[in-house]
Amino acid sequence: MDVQALQRAIKHFLAEDIAGGDITSEAIFLATQPGKAIFIAQQEFVVAGIETVAPLVFQTRNPALRCRPVKDGKKAKPGDILLSVNGPILDLLAAERVALNLCQRLSGIATLTARFVEAVKGLPVRILDTRKTTPGLRILEKYAVTVGGGHNHRFTLHDQILIKDNHIAAAGSIGEAVRKVRAYAPKGRKVEVECETLAQVREALAAKADIIMLDNMTPAAMRKAVALVGKQATTEASGGVTLKNIRRIAETGVDCISIGALTHSAPAMDISMELLTR
After folding, report:
1. CA-CA distances (angstroms) from residue 244 to 32, 119, 154, 247?
2. Bridge partner list, 34
3. Residues 110 and 122 in one domain
4. pTM recorded for the entire structure
5. I want to staple 61 with a disulfide (CB 3.0 to 4.6 A). Which of 69, 95, 162, 255 is the partner?
6. b/e per residue, 18-44, with b = 16+ CB within 10 A?
7. What is the pLDDT of residues 16-53, one digit of tens each?
8. Are residues 112 and 262 in contact, defined by beta-carbon separation less than 8 angstroms?
9. Boundaries of domain holding 87
10. Which residues are designated catalytic?
């Protein structure tokens, strides 16, 4: 992760939350009054952000704050202490909500990803995320996917060529779309083509696509497509993937399964902060 870029974002997050100051805490605690805060897990989940993000939030607020986090990837149980932070109480409370919000969000993504990974255990398939991330949090949310055992698809529109239905319609055909992007894009960029039918899969193969996305196909159609592609390209299943059907999809032989829900629908995990003033 780009730590400097992340720090700039965290400064913005803190400014958004603190604004003109914490008028409640400032009325009760002395400016230099020391204390300790601990993060406590309230449910079972895969930890993400506690090791990497929470200390950065607290130390962006005050570099003198001392943090002791557990490692990301740990499987937390209710009552587990995930983080302890020592320093001025006003700084602990000022950074609390931003740190909790990020860690709850990232832990939710890691936990949901781990459930999908577990659902295809034993099969040679990779679980991928998508660009369906929260604006401003993409690098963190994609990091959480890797903590949960998943893999990252492209980070930006510049990373990889992905020809979708609108591109095909505008170019006139899959072959023409592939020709145009190969002529325009920097060398080395892989070309992926979104296909909804076996006929489109054949077109993508003829155009020598590197990756063929099987978009919203039935498992039966996917199995035929995988057989058709063989080793000529990487196959990626996408669309309508759930925990109930992912193993059936994986059993078709696809190389990858991309799931937007990993980042756009993961529920936040329950983490609380307790302040110890004595």
Report:
1. 53, 9, 26, 8
2. 88
3. no
4. 0.96
5. 95
6. eeeebeebeeebeeeeebbbebbbeee
7. 999 989 999 999 999 999 999 999 999 999 999 999 99
8. yes
9. 3-114+267-276
10. 97, 132, 164, 194, 215
